[in-house]
Amino acid sequence: MSWVESLQKAIDYIEQHLLEEISIEQIAQQANSSPFHFQRTFAILTDMTVGEYIRNRRLTLAAQELSHSDCKIIDIALKYGYDTPEAFTKAFRKQHGITPSEARSCTGRLQSYNRLAIQVSLKGVEPMKYSIMQKEAFQVVGVKREFSYENEEQHQGIALFWRDVHADGTNDRLCALNDGELKGVLGICIDSGKAKPKMMDYWIATAHQGEVPEGLLSVEIPASTWAIFEVHGAMPDAMPKVWKQIFSEWFPSSGYEYAGTPELEVYPNDNPYSPNYYSEIWIPVKKK
């Protein structure tokens, strides 16, 4: 089964079980993927989390049912996963801008989220500059925080983590310690796996050989075959744009697949807000 077919199978599974309690583990299994990697891929491609997609789809179907049936609002609320009319009304208004009662009386516009169908581009309009490189294991030193990805809390948490690292001087310290082949400060996602389900470690670190400096931690990045992508442009917009190209254009046509070890974002010590800023994405890959 191809990468695109696997992802579509997972989306189809969501749709088939939309009115049931389904876990991210069950969904990711349909794509033969880890929960962590599936959620990350899904969010990059769709600009929404798995939880947001499920919630948006349920409220879309609820709005259609309100408009075309005589079912009680409380019954529709329960059907689509809300325990109280108040919770349903709050969520419904947030998505549609009107209350369930107004939707029933057709006195407002509704916002519809249609069923997803994954489409990819085998030839990107903009060329992607990348290289494939084999690299032995290496040590990084830095700081880390643990996040739960069950409720997608890592997205906001990682942004705050970077803010704190810049504010307290850790980023400058890591730049000074850098003595490896990767030049700059690294953002590293590491899935905790079965040891801590639904948890991930996010490191802000740098390549550094030898003794671990006081106050910092170390982790070994395993030997890997890396696909290294150039990123040109100011943060924070340039990096997400290339991530989306990688998953929507490069992976489907490259002959490679994700290898499952930690991935890296490399931020050189320059002005990240400059339109000429250069950074990199390192993804561990293996031949299909």
UniProtKB/TrEMBL annotation:
<keyword id="KW-0805">Transcription regulation</keyword>
<dbReference type="InterPro" id="IPR050959">
    <property type="entry name" value="MarA-like"/>
</dbReference>
<dbReference type="InterPro" id="IPR029441">
    <property type="entry name" value="Cass2"/>
</dbReference>
<keyword id="KW-0238">DNA-binding</keyword>
<dbReference type="InterPro" id="IPR011256">
    <property type="entry name" value="Reg_factor_effector_dom_sf"/>
</dbReference>
<feature type="domain" description="HTH araC/xylS-type">
    <location>
        <begin position="8"/>
        <end position="106"/>
    </location>
</feature>
<dbReference type="InterPro" id="IPR010499">
    <property type="entry name" value="AraC_E-bd"/>
</dbReference>
<dbReference type="GO" id="GO:0003700">
    <property type="term" value="F:DNA-binding transcription factor activity"/>
</dbReference>
<dbReference type="InterPro" id="IPR018062">
    <property type="entry name" value="HTH_AraC-typ_CS"/>
</dbReference>
<protein>
    <submittedName>
        <fullName>AraC family transcriptional regulator</fullName>
    </submittedName>
</protein>
<dbReference type="InterPro" id="IPR020449">
    <property type="entry name" value="Tscrpt_reg_AraC-type_HTH"/>
</dbReference>
<dbReference type="InterPro" id="IPR009057">
    <property type="entry name" value="Homeodomain-like_sf"/>
</dbReference>
<dbReference type="InterPro" id="IPR018060">
    <property type="entry name" value="HTH_AraC"/>
</dbReference>
<dbReference type="GO" id="GO:0043565">
    <property type="term" value="F:sequence-specific DNA binding"/>
</dbReference>
<dbReference type="Pfam" id="PF14526">
    <property type="entry name" value="Cass2"/>
</dbReference>
<keyword id="KW-0804">Transcription</keyword>
<dbReference type="Pfam" id="PF12833">
    <property type="entry name" value="HTH_18"/>
</dbReference>
